[in-house]
Amino acid sequence: MKKISLLAGVIVVAAVTAYGQRANLAARVLENGLEARLGADRIAELEDGLHLALCGACGPLPAPNASGP
After folding, report:
1. Rounded to an integer, what distance in angstroms lies between the CA atom of residue 29 and that of residue 35?
2. So where are the chain's domains?
């Protein structure tokens, strides 16, 4: 029983610490993710030929408030 309560206490402390640092954690995760996504050259990975690129909200019909102008 002591091990379970100790484990629960450690999880609660880790969760409270992560919640308190959520702004810093989110900024760091987004920064690393953006560098990885924007730094990649997707065109260089393609072979010769005709390619189609799609962008948008992934809906069959555009929603007026889902995408920008």
Report:
1. 10
2. 2-36
The tokens for 28 are 């760091």
Q: Name the amino acid, one letter, at 16.
A: V
Question: Tokens 């990975």 label which residue?
Answer: 45
* pLDDT tens-digit readout, 29-51: 898 888 888 888 888 888 999 98
pTM reported for the whole predicted model: 0.43
**What six digits make up the tokens of 54?**
């799609």
Give the chain's end-to-end CA distance (angstroms, integer).
59
Q: What is the DSSP string of 6-51?
A: HHHHHHHHHHHHHHHTHHHHHHHHHHHHHHHHHH--TTTT--SS--
